[in-house]
Amino acid sequence: MSDEIRDVVIIGSGPAGYTAAIYLGRAGYRPLMIAGALTPGGQLVNTTEVENFPGFPDGVMGPDLMDAMLKQAEKFGTEIVYDDVVSVDFGGGDSADDDANAVKSVTVDGGDTYRARAVVVTTGSSYRKLGVPGEEEFSGRGVSYCATCDGFFFRNQPIVVVGGGDSAFEEALFLSRFGSSVTLVHRREEFRASKIMVDRARENEKISFATNAVVESVNGDDSGAQSVTLRDVVSGETRELPANGIFVAIGHTPCTGFLGGAVKLDEDGYIVVDGASTRTSVPGVFAAGDVVDRTYRQAISAAGMGCRAALDAQAYLTAE
């Protein structure tokens, strides 16, 4: 463990982490960012063209956008460590004052431990995947996990949405604006989605349903995905359904396991923050992006929350 106590450590990268680093760096705090060992930059590193991020009228490739944010953060003094955090210690002594002024420690997989007066957590969430043949192969070439990001690319093409909750129905309704058809595939007869969402989908002429069905594989060629193989869970029969766009909407898993209960989480593992702020249950620890946000999950909203986390952290450090 180093004796150095830094002002701020940012755990995670992506739009939220890089934005927090830019703001904190410009304020003179020289943050340390632990960006991750394998996927620094978050989910956008695996995204092709991003057309809805403000300032890029011709679109921008996801990896290029993240690389530009990284360079901007480094320009203002951010130090980057490419490793994964495996444990944290945010606690203090027995009194509230001790907790409020406690030095936080963060240990990475390589064995190093970093200490800081404040911590910003921006580790995001990961899409739950189907785990079927073809899913990885056609990711970005037909398989998507974000309708608002990629729906436009499937104009006048057949689309499949996999899932049975409100998110799946929201995506199906949104995608009906673009696709020639939308088939919602769900493994049960009944849906988890609210009645109003189900009713809206049933009233939409473009949306049809494949219930008691699961995706067995995603099929395609060099041009991208062309179909999915569905298996009826009752009869066991399989059939092939044409689909150029396959949108997986079976949920997200927030990346909070490394915290070990150090901050308050909700029942699904998302970090709980105080109202519209980014303050967590531990003074001096802040959270931003998809690790908090279960609703919007957009690059621009994560970046905005990263800005708020930086300003909240500055206020905390100034008041110490």
From TrEMBL:
PROSITE patterns: PYRIDINE_REDOX_2
Keywords tagged on the record: Disulfide bond, FAD, Flavoprotein, NADP, Oxidoreductase, Redox-active center
Domain of life (superkingdom): Bacteria
Free-text cofactor note: Binds 1 FAD per subunit.
GO molecular function: thioredoxin-disulfide reductase (NADPH) activity
One Pfam match: Pyr_redox_2
InterPro entries reported for this sequence: FAD/NAD-bd_sf (IPR036188), FAD/NAD-binding_dom (IPR023753), Ferredoxin-NADP_redctase_2 (IPR050097), Pyr_nucl-diS_OxRdtase_2_AS (IPR008255), Thioredox_Rdtase (IPR005982)
Cofactors that this protein relies on: FAD
Domain FAD/NAD(P)-binding: 7-306
Class in the EC hierarchy, top level: oxidoreductase
GO biological process: removal of superoxide radicals
Enzyme Commission number(s): 1.8.1.9
GO cellular-component term (any): cytoplasm
Catalytic activity annotation: [thioredoxin]-dithiol + NADP(+) = [thioredoxin]-disulfide + NADPH + H(+)
Entry similarity comment: Belongs to the class-II pyridine nucleotide-disulfide oxidoreductase family.
Subunit-level organization: Homodimer.
The protein's name in its UniProt record: Thioredoxin reductase
Organism: Bifidobacterium aerophilum
Lineage of source species: Bacteria, Bacillati, Actinomycetota, Actinomycetes, Bifidobacteriales
